[in-house]
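Forgive a beginner's question, but would it be possible to get a protein, spelled out as residues, together with the matching structure tokens, please?
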Amino acid sequence: DKDTKEFFDEIDKEIKQDYKTCSVSQAFDAVFQCYTLGSQAIHYYRYGTKNDCSGKWEDFKFCLKTKTKPSEKAHV
């Protein structure tokens, strides 16, 4: 199906773009900022729950994994 192929081609393009724009220092800063007391307190005040930083943590791990691989393997 043509639409399905285009969809997966777009996803592959986004993944490659994520690799190119991934910054370990920015990802670390985002994780650190998410876990700070102030950020957690504001989120708890607004929503009544602890802020879930797992998405930012996964982004950080992704950057670490891709930035330590040779570029040929990271683009696969």
